[in-house]
Amino acid sequence: MAEVKLINVSKIYEGGNKAVKEVNIEIREKEFVVLVGPSGCGKSTTLRMIAGLEEISEGELFIDGKLVNDVSPKDRDIAMVFQNYALYPHMTVYDNMAFGLKLRKFSKQEIKERVLNAAKILGIEEYLDRKPKALSGGQRQRVAVGRAIVRKPKVFLFDEPLSNLDAKLRVQMRTEISRLHRNLSATMIYVTHDQTEAMTMGDRIVIMKDGVVHQVDTPLNLYNNPVNKFVAGFIGSPSMNFVDGTLLSENGSILFKSLGGELNLNLNNTLKAKVAHLTGKEITLGIRPENIHTSNSGGTSDYQSVKTILDVVEPMGNEIFIYFNLDQNQVTARIGAATKPEPGSEVSLYFDSGKLHFFDKETGLAIN
Ligand code: ADP
Prior knowledge:
The chain is an alpha+beta fold.
């Protein structure tokens, strides 16, 4: 298995559109790395450059220490799984999986062993004689994955492989691909726009926007220490809440006061030390929905209450999402399902001021 290294890789499409800008990523052997970001951020283009399906305009791509910019896709020892499965409709499942091996002149016996082994891993042994049209979406995607497995490639590339599946099947295939990664000990690079897929599957995640890599990190580090407001808002569902305000220094304390005055939080000593140099400046506060509570029982001295009127209440079964407004920003809290508050009612909510994030209002960069 292999490591993959991108050094200052850019893609400029005809017409001058720079879709990928000086991307640097080092993917380690056996690592599962997810490229994630909103539609159009350049993640598929990056994957296709690794596959050799798009020319690299600038920069260098190394697979296992070898510069492969000019190596053709078939000689890169990689296998790619596409969103639309890309199966041959007139061939059986067996032949679809065997096709690449036949082209590479593997013996009949070797092909049979590899196809049967992959079919077993994926639980599609009973469908080997069927044509793709006689399969469900999930089964077709398994065949597409099987076609990659039989090649025993150095690197697996996945381009939004689960996007065409319904929600339940997506979750199932997600765990299957994670298990496959563990069992094959393979290097895998996976593209998705879905932050949940990224968080649950990736050893590390590459967050992209407008062709630029914003952060490369483990899921937990991204969640807890986002480098900027974009990453903070993209990772986590429901998203982090943001409120603009000013830091005021009062009798030795530092207070965050929102611009419209509806949120006032006294900062604890840890946060004070971080932001003391910014008093008097406008700043963006971020707080995740799970850090706003409906009671302060079991809380710490960091809990600070705010009175508000509930706008919308969404019961999810195991928890409830509540929505309310602060200075005309919609703010979300996720609370326990034990008691369901009424929309329109006035409630006291407790903000855990020990769990606040702060961002530069102009640049969006996190203040650490
Ligand atoms: P993502 O996979 O993140 O949705 P893509 O890599 O597909 O994004 O696209 C990145 C940008 O490059 C987009 O602005 C898209 O319109 C543009 N793009 C993609 N393919 C081409 C192409 N063949 N020619 C010109 N522009 C393209």
